[in-house]
Amino acid sequence: MKERKIKLIWDLRGPDASKTAEHHAIHLKEYVVSENLTEKITGYQTLSPMHSIAFLVVSEAEMISVRDILKPHRGEFYEE
């Protein structure tokens, strides 16, 4: 059975949300490399002028340790 992937999400709000999300995604990418995580998927998305997200996709096995360290606001199952 294929292991599920979890998308960890940080919600950023306010007039600078998009720039903050973009910057946060840079640090998430650095974290993926430094911790040698299985998945290499990170990014950011602008949902509205006042709401953006930064995200990191992790394997289900890595989710709890990454969640406890990085403290995302929420998570969802990730489908490719």
The major beta sheet can be summarized as: 4 strands, antiparallel
Structural class: alpha+beta
Lateral strand order in the biggest sheet: 2-3-1-4
CATH top level is Alpha Beta
Q: What would the principal axes of the Cα set say about the shape?
A: globular
* Helix coverage percent: 25-40%
When the domains are counted, the total is 1
Termini separation: 16 Å
Average per-residue pLDDT, rounded, comes to: 97
What share of the residues does DSSP label as strand, in percent?
35-45%
Count every helix, treating DSSP H or I runs of 4 or more residues as helices. 2
Low-confidence stretches: none
How large, in whole angstroms, is the Cα Rg?
Answer: 12 Å
Give the CATH architecture.
2-Layer Sandwich
Strand tally: 4
CATH topology: Alpha-Beta Plaits
String of helices and strands: EHEEHE
Descriptive report:
This protein has a 4-stranded antiparallel β-sheet. The chain has one domain: 2-Layer Sandwich (Alpha-Beta Plaits). 38% of the residues lie in helices and 38% in strands. The mean pLDDT is 97. With 80 residues, the protein is α+β, with helices and mostly antiparallel strands. It has helices at residues 17-35, 60-70, and strands at 5-13, 42-48, 51-59, 74-78. The chain is built from 2 helices and 4 strands; from the N terminus they run E-H-E-E-H-E. It is globular, with a radius of gyration of 12 Å. The two termini are 16 Å apart.
